[in-house]
Recover the amino acids of this structure.
């Protein structure tokens, strides 16, 4: 028997009072243990979807279930399964991280003698224990983001939802956040992530849904999605000296000069590189190194959202 999904939405619709149809029939399924990316441009409906799961928004119709429990049946039970890291920092800046964590545990009915060591554990794991007893307004933006994650862990959720958790956070802190989140995912927690850092989603997530104008336009394994992109772009480093020379014409390859030491070659995945190298050598241009341009997901995303939608048939009306 298939496992009960960590999250399932069935024809979920939301029309706000001003008439905006933020969700137009979203049906999604996230398996337990998954690391799932929800991507979409601004205004696509991501926050509305997350808001429904966290009881902040009432759906107009349809259902959402966490581990089989419907939001219409028992919102409290749904909330207990979920940890939410919202986009906006929304704790009291005059409280301390320790109190914020212990108090939120109180909402879930977790006794203080359980909550205190748990707060210490997560503040430690997120490397902000040394700030645990200072007012949070003294903390940096990256520390506040990590506190939001620690707070979301206080009910030890089976499903952790993170809404743009690394927006504006520097790379080192971002990495430590991902280390933590990858760790809890390995330990069994299902993770759903919305992010604008597409490379982050590409590296971390196993499955992906892309939402646009309230419709799911793609929902598949990350690997399958990336394989659809049959165009590959390489970045070639070349010695600075060739700058004035014309580039060779290579059939099937779009060769562009980026700057005096960099070329970009776009070609189909099945195209071989030999003809490109031969043509470049013919012009006396040596390639000193070659790498794959890593923004494939970004390219794909732009194509799906802006240039027609190959899987439109999957989207609920
Ligand atoms: P995203 O999180 O993907 O940026 P949102 O869910 O915030 O998208 O928004 C989806 C659409 O719903 C947008 O057109 C937005 O302007 C609209 N919207 C969001 N919240 C409200 C609200 N409280 N009242 C009216 N319209 C809203």
């Amino acid at each position: 028997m298939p496992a009960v999904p960590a999250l399932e939405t069935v024809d979920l619709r939301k029309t706000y009072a001003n008439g905006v149809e933020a969700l137009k029939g979203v049906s999604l399924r996230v398996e337990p243990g998954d690391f799932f990316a929800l991507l979409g441009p601004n205004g696509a409906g991501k926050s509305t979807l997350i808001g429904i799961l966290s009881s902040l928004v009432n759906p107009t119709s349809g259902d959402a279930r966490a581990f089989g429990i419907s939001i219409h049946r028992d919102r409290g039970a749904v909330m207990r399964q979920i940890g939410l890291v919202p986009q906006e920092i929304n704790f009291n800046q005059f409280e301390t991280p320790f109190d914020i964590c212990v108090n939120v545990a109180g909402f879930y009915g977790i006794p203080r003698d359980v909550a205190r060591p748990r707060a210490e554990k997560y503040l430690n794991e997120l490397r902000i224990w040394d700030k645990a007893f200072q007012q949070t307004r003294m903390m940096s933006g990256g520390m506040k983001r990590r506190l939001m994650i620690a707070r979301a862990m206080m009910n030890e959720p089976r499903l952790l939802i993170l809404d743009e958790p690394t927006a504006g956070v520097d790379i080192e802190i971002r990495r430590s956040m991902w280390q933590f989140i990858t760790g809890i995912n390995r330990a069994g927690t299902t993770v759903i992530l919305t992010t604008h850092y597409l490379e982050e989603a590409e590296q971390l997530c196993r499955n992906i849904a892309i939402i646009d104008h309230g419709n799911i336009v793609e929902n598949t394994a990350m690997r399958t999605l990336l394989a659809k992109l049959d165009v590959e772009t390489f970045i070639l480093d070349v010695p600075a000296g060739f700058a004035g020379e014309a580039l060779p014409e290579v059939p099937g390859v779009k060769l562009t000069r980026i700057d005096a030491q960099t070329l970009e070659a776009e070609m189909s995945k099945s195209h071989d590189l030999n003809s490109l190298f031969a043509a470049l050598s013919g012009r006396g241009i040596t390639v000193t190194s070659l790498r794959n341009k890593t923004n494939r997901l970004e390219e794909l995303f732009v194509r799906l959202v802006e240039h027609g939608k190959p899987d439109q048939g999957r989207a609920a009306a």
